[in-house]
UniProtKB/TrEMBL annotation:
GO terms for biological process, alphabetical: DNA-templated transcription initiation
UniProt-listed Gene3D superfamilies: 1.20.120.1810, Winged helix-like DNA-binding domain superfamily/Winged helix DNA-binding domain
Protein name per its UniProtKB record: RNA polymerase subunit sigma
Domain RNA polymerase sigma-70 residue range list: 57-70
Gene Ontology molecular function: any one: DNA binding
């Protein structure tokens, strides 16, 4: 059920969008962003639990999508702005997450072994005052040295060089 306040906000938002399309003033665009930031918050909240990025980073990226939607929205077509804006917000966040993700997808077990190796290395250094050898790390992880070297190589090569 739509409340009177929601109707007023939608009407005010559409009024600002019309005015922004006519004048292109940044002040108006910023007001529209502030009025519709809840759309970005909702989408950022959804994605934050599914990635390693912070809520604030996702909020910033989603805001870029909102600004793009504001610039491309046509009031004369009669669409609801929120319906129009959500794909832009979601798309900007997804594009950002795709760019941040690695090219090579590693099995979760391998990531767990990489994390365990960091703990093993730290503890080994504290006890022996030196870096552990590859064989010592592999033995502590209970895997072969060949498997450990494969995992390490895959981890190092998961991002493009350029």
């Amino acid at each position: 059920m739509t409340t009177v306040l929601e109707c007023d906000l939608k009407h005010h938002s559409l009024q600002l969008l019309r005015e922004y399309q006519q004048t292109g003033k940044a002040r108006l665009r910023n007001q529209i962003v502030e009025l519709n930031l809840g759309l970005v918050r909702k989408e950022a909240h959804y994605w934050v639990s599914q990635c390693k990025e912070t809520y604030d980073d996702l909020l910033q990226v989603g805001s870029i999508g909102l600004i793009n939607a504001i610039d491309k929205f046509e009031v004369s077509k009669g669409y609801a702005f929120s319906t129009f804006a959500m794909p832009y917000i979601r798309g900007e966040i997804q594009h950002y997450l795709r760019d941040k993700s690695s090219i090579l997808k590693m099995p979760r077990k391998w990531f767990a072994l990489i994390q365990q190796s960091a703990t093993i290395t730290k503890n080994f250094q504290a006890q022996h005052q030196r870096q552990p050898t590859e064989a010592e790390i592999a033995q502590a992880l209970d895997i072969s040295i060949v498997e450990w070297q494969e995992i390490k190589m895959a981890y190092q090569n998961r991002q493009p060089v350029s």
